[in-house]
Amino acid sequence: MVLIAIILGCVLGAIIGINAPMISYTYSSYLAIAVIAALDTVFGGIASVVNKKFDIKIFITGFFGNAILAILLTMLGEKLNVDIYLAAIVVFVWRMFINLAIIRRYYVEKWSNKFSKKDAPNNAEKATDNEGKLDKSE
Q1: Helix and strand totals (H; E) in the chain
Q2: Half-sphere exposure (Cβ direction) of 97: Cα atoms closer than 13 Å
Q3: CA-CA distance, 73 to 85, in Å (whole number)?
Q4: Model confidence over 18-60: pLDDT tens digits?
Q5: What residues contact residue 31 under an 8 Å CB cut-off, 6+ apart?
Q6: What is the rounded distance in angstroms from the CA atom of residue 3 to the CA atom of residue 113?
């Protein structure tokens, strides 16, 4: 079910992206920070699924809350003539890397455990075979 939603969202996003008009330079910083905030939330959601702590309410409110906060910071920075949105980008990207590390560690451990369980019977057979043979150096 989740896989169907992901595929449907990607196809819908691609269709909208192809048919959408070009974003002007004035609004490009708003869109960039909103996309980075949304990606941070997506990586956080995947990390929480891996940790078995996923809650859809937290995900949705985080998705929109992060995007809105990032856009408001960008607006405030434009009013003050200071690039405050750069601080938001640094924080969101830092969190994305942390969440990516959690996801990567989970799948590497899962992959390692899969192969260690697969090799365990083979190692046990080799150990019993070697017990019956004498070492020629003795």
Answers
A1: 4, 0
A2: 5
A3: 6
A4: 887 777 777 888 888 888 988 899 899 999 999 999 899 998 9
A5: 23
A6: 25
3-state secondary structure of 123: helix
CA-nearest of 32, 59, 56, 40 to 98 is 40
52: left (phi over 0), alpha (psi -120 to 50) or beta: left
Q: Is-contact 39 96, C-beta < 8 A?
A: yes
> Which secondary-structure segment (H or E) carries 111?
helix 85-132
The structure tokens 């939330």 sit at 41
Identify which has the larger pLDDT, 118 or 63: 63
